[in-house]
User: Which sequence fits this backbone?
């Protein structure tokens, strides 16, 4: 059954066109009733950066170089992960009309939602590149290491998809999972190197960069985009192992629990 889920999705016709259409519709609807519309996709991370910059740079006197850019890349990676996982917890309920009354595979619904979040991530990532390379005084300019952003984002996407599948299918049998996940992500937020330098992070939490896949992605993103060096290959491999393992568990959950979603939710 697990192989059938993947096979059905891969063999379905016009899947990329359908996924892209759904992603665009969802992205636009998210900001439809707001006065500023799609501008919120760009303004929200900037507002977050402004708040944390004042707290950690001005009040707590953080000595991290290029702190605004340091925060920027950490926050957009974190926000993508949280939006993709928290926003899909109830997806089998809120979008059951798509798999009940159409020939859509359940996996397509998840992927299209993450594609929608990827649109916002892309805009924010471009803003980061413009800010860091043209406005940040400590920038070293654009280098070929930026291409490492592609496998890092793929890692982030697979990780988010795997966690989304696990959470949303657990929600079918235990609705408390949404509240538990919100508390857990709040805890994990401060255990990720979003505000702290790598040295401080490693001193406080030795080897935790290997136990927290989001931490590894953020660390490697800063290495390739800000330090213009190669990623930590060992950390990169570990993060991909985490992501693929969680995706595998998520597909098993979709196979075991997803079929019961319509009747239980």
Assistant:
């Amino acid at each position: 059954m697990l192989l059938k889920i993947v096979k059905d999705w891969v063999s379905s016709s016009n899947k990329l066109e359908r996924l892209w259409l759904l992603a665009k519709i969802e992205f636009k609807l998210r900001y439809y009733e707001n006065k500023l519309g799609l501008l919120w996709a760009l303004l929200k991370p900037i507002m977050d950066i402004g708040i944390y910059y004042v707290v950690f740079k001005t009040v707590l006197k953080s000595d991290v170089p290029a702190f605004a850019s340091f925060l920027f890349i950490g926050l957009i990676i974190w926000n993508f992960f949280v939006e993709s996982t928290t926003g899909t917890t109830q997806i089998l309920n809120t979008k059951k009309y798509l798999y009940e009354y159409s020939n859509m595979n359940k996996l397509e619904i998840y992927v299209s939602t993450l594609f929608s979040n990827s649109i916002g991530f892309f805009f924010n990532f471009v803003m980061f590149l413009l800010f860091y390379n043209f406005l940040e005084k400590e920038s070293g300019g654009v280098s070929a290491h930026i291409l490492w952003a592609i496998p890092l984002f793929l890692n982030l996407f697979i990780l988010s998809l795997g966690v989304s599948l696990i959470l949303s299918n657990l929600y079918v049998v235990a609705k408390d999972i949404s509240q538990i996940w919100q508390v857990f992500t709040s805890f994990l937020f401060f255990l990720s190197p979003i505000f702290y330098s790598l040295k401080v992070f490693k001193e406080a939490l030795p080897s935790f960069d290997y136990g927290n896949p989001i931490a590894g992605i953020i660390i490697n993103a800063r290495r390739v985009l800000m330090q213009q060096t190669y990623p930590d290959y060992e950390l990169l491999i570990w993060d991909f192992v985490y992501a693929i393992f969680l995706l595998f568990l998520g597909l098993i959950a979709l196979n075991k629990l997803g079929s019961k979603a319509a009747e239980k939710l």
Notes: Residues 2-264 form one domain.
